[in-house]
Amino acid sequence: MAPTRPLLVLTCGSLALALALGIRQDFGLLLAPMAADTGWSLAGLAFGLALQQLVWGVAQPLVGALADVKGPRIVVAGGGVAFVAGLLLMGFGGSLPLFQLGAGLFIGTALAAVGFSVVLGTVARAAPEARRSLYLGLASAGGSFGMFAFVPLGQGLIGGLGWQGALLALALTALAIPVLALALGGPPPAHRTLPGGGLGQALRAASRHDGFWLLTAGFFVCGFHVAFISVHLPGYVAACGLAPEIGAWSLALVGLFNVAGSLAAGQLGGRYRPKVLLSGIYFARGLVLLAFLLSAKTPAVTLAFAAAMGFLWLSTVPLTTGVVAGIFGPTYVSTLFGLVFLGHQIGAFLGAWAGGLSVEWLGSYDAVWWASVALAFFAALVHLPIRDARLPQTVTGAA
């Protein structure tokens, strides 16, 4: 592989990830104006975004396996097309079921194709082994920057064009994803030299490894947190009597500090055991959530909470990917991380939907906030017993 190839893959993969995650970060801003304009229920809209999380998770190992075998170029390009179609259905379908179809099935599948599993798996294979953790951190930081940049952009588009005009503009922006996919390459060369049954061998090894299931349980908690907060923080801020701009800037700060957190995780993951760092991240999340719940909800407190959670947000992703690659090798990391990510998205489905149900049934978000605290401390514990030593190549099927 030419020396410039890893940097090209890193750059284009990071940009595609930034577009996908950045556009997705705007969806929480759309709920209130859509509900007010259409009369659709908050729970119905939240279900569409919750379905997105579930479809994303179910599709992730499938598209990850496709990327491992056929190469990421075709997968990411197809995901970009599905992203555009989903955004147009959300904006112009004209009914709640079609909104749910666009937001849930189309965008969920697109996020699986353009999301962490495929992009980080591609970066992990392209990166020099000694710099793999750094490259994974840089790619995650690229996605994080998209989350920061698109929130004020989305807020401005909604204010200037309305929610339908904003979705149209975002759909046009997403057309860049298939172009960026051209640089990501075809079938990985390593796959062509693998003996038959390599992928099945890796899957069997993962299913028998208790650390794989503990990692999945911890990532379930991460998904619950990020989906609940990204979808419902603007509504919670408004319910506390704060200006809508505070909700928008809170999401933007999550994205901005996410960049620093992802870069720090990538750097530290090359020096310290990633499983220990993951445990510390979830413990810190629990403390931040608890402090926020017990504090007065002022603009300064809310923005400080968003910054702290942002630093701890996607810093879990390069570390979790690093644990998977460290145990099973990089050859099938897109597939194996995709399976771990399924646990993340089951948690995300429950977090996004539970927020809407909590408001409708209990009149507030409090129950879900307290559940988030308990789950954070649970995740801090389950990472500690993970056996993270590299398995023999004969077990994982790696070449």
Structure summary:
The protein is mostly helical.
Describe it.
With 399 residues, the chain is mainly alpha-helical. It has one domain: MFS general substrate transporter like domains (Growth Hormone, Chain: A), CATH 1.20.1250.20. Helices cover 83% and strands 0% of the residues. It has 18 helices and no strands. It has helices spanning 5-25, 27-38, 42-70, 72-92, 96-114, 116-126, 132-174, 176-181, 189-192, 198-207, 210-239, 244-269, 274-294, 299-311, 316-328, 333-362, 366-382, 393-396. Helix 7 (132-174) crosses helix 15 and helix 13 packs antiparallel against helix 15. The longest helix is centred in the middle third of the chain and has 43 residues, at 132-174. The protein is globular and about 55 Å long. Keywords: Membrane, Transmembrane, Transmembrane helix. The chain crosses the membrane at residues 38-59, 71-92, 98-121, 133-151, 163-184, 212-234, 246-264, 276-296, 302-328, 335-355, 367-386. InterPro entries: MFS, MFS_dom, MFS_trans_sf, Proton-linked_MCT. GO terms for molecular function: transmembrane transporter activity. This is Major facilitator superfamily transport protein.
